[in-house]
Amino acid sequence: MKKYNRTFLFVACIAMASLILVGSKCKKKDEPPPPDDLITCTSNITDGCLDDWKVYSWYTTYINPTGEFLQTLNELSALPPEAGGPGPVTADTVTDCVQGKYAARLISGSFSPLGSPIFIPGYIGSSILDIPNATIHLGKPYTQRPLRFQAYYKYAPANGDSALIEVMLSRFNTGAGKRDTISFDKIIIKNGVSSYTQIDMTLSYRDSINSPDTILIAFSASADTRFNDLYHCSGQVGSTMWVDDLKFVFP
Fold it and tell me: What pTM, to 2 d.p., does this model score?
């Protein structure tokens, strides 16, 4: 995998550190205003309603959920030309939602920063994109033990693609020097789903005693997402997944 030179890494770090908040809503110019009779969304997951987004500015602007718990790969769309950008916009908002103002729409795409096309999945999850190292750092701090995970989705695969929904709770084992899995569940969606459908996932705990310190929630419009190496993801450009109303159910 090609690495950026030291000059670009320095410039990229400075640019990323100086992200500027230029707005609090993500409505596209041609998107109609939300109706007045909205059903209010409530969620016990930060950003779980997917209603509030920020617009950030780097080389160009891009959007991410306001709470910064759930993140997309849209920062790639703000890459400057000298870094091979801009990349594709792989997440936006739509008023076609279950509750609240918006749902997230994930659209798989591609771009060619090194001269050859690189596939980028439509993705949102509790993670942080690391552009210089072409990887995703998985998980955000979380210490509770929910019983179930619920969300609504629709899916329109391109050319036989599949989608991924994944929830993992983990804890760093200081004695062993490694991360232990507390629970892990995933769903692979192989067929199109034309209307919003709720998933109600009972979490499968492998550790009945310890509390987690980290959680990964991931939605990908293309299931063959390699979080540790974005240069080698696979899928079909145009695969689209709609996601809304994420929440946990506790005992």
Answer: 0.84
